[in-house]
Write a structure and sequence with these properties.
Elements (H helix, E strand, L loop, with lengths): L14 H4 L4 H12 L5 E5 L6 E3 H18 L6 H10 L4 H4 L12 H14 L8 H10 L3 H19 L4 H5 L4 H8 L2 H4 L1 H16 L7
Antiparallel strand pairs: 1-2
Length: 212
């Protein structure tokens, strides 16, 4: 479309429906989503000295899943995959981020689920299936959920390898911890697992991971 092409003057909304929706409620919910930008993760953004936030991670996760799904011609529903990626960390608005190797990691989903229920009930939320989509990515076994879990583990690993293991070093992470957290990928996506295994070896050689 040319920059000079006039936009259609046809209204986007159904006037009868729109008059029953309070835009203050809509913008309230949008600000609730904005809060995810304030949740900092442990991984560092490459070529910077700052940590990424959960909203940035969600965007990266969605783009990475989309790209990998198309490149490998995976039999997945792209719309479902992208929606799951976008809601994946949304519960952290209330619960905050829990480090992969933290002792409290196994219970993180409990607080996140409560946060998702709150957001589902917020005025101005137009995503009726928000809780269902989050639950599917959290507990489901679909191909989309499997791919999301693989990529969600790949991305922080990738950032660590490209920031000289900064997070790993700060947190005294061991080689066996990382290998264990990534072991399931061997069955789900062997090609990615082979790359991870090679780079775990490299990270240990560089002493970014404690060789235990």
């Amino acid at each position: 479309m040319s920059l000079n092409t006039p936009l259609s003057s046809t209204p986007l909304t159904n006037p009868a429906l729109a008059k029953n929706i309070d835009i203050d409620d809509v913008t309230h919910f949008l600000l609730e989503l904005d809060a995810l930008k304030r949740v900092n993760r442990r991984s560092y953004v490459t070529q910077t000295t700052r940590r990424e936030n959960s909203a940035e991670h969600s965007w990266h996760l969605a783009m990475a899943c989309w790209s990998i799904a198309e490149l490998f011609e995976l039999d997945v529903n792209h719309e479902k995959l992208l929606k799951m990626s976008l809601v994946h960390d949304l519960g952290e608005v209330d619960a905050g981020d829990t480090f992969l190797f933290a002792s409290t990691r196994s219970a993180a989903h409990v607080e996140e689920r409560v946060g998702i229920a709150r957001l589902q009930a917020e005025r101005g939320n137009g995503i009726k299936a928000l809780s269902d989509i989050w639950e599917e990515q959290e507990t489901g076994s679909s191909k989309e959920a499997q791919l999301l879990r693989v990529v969600d583990r790949l991305l922080p690993f990738l950032l660590n390898v490209n920031t000289e293991g900064k997070t790993w070093i700060e947190s005294d992470v061991t080689r066996s911890q990382v290998a264990g957290a990534l072991a399931f990928i061997k069955d789900s996506f062997p090609t990615i697992h082979d790359w991870l295994t090679k780079n775990i070896e490299y990270a240990a050689q560089q002493e970014w991971l404690i060789d235990l």
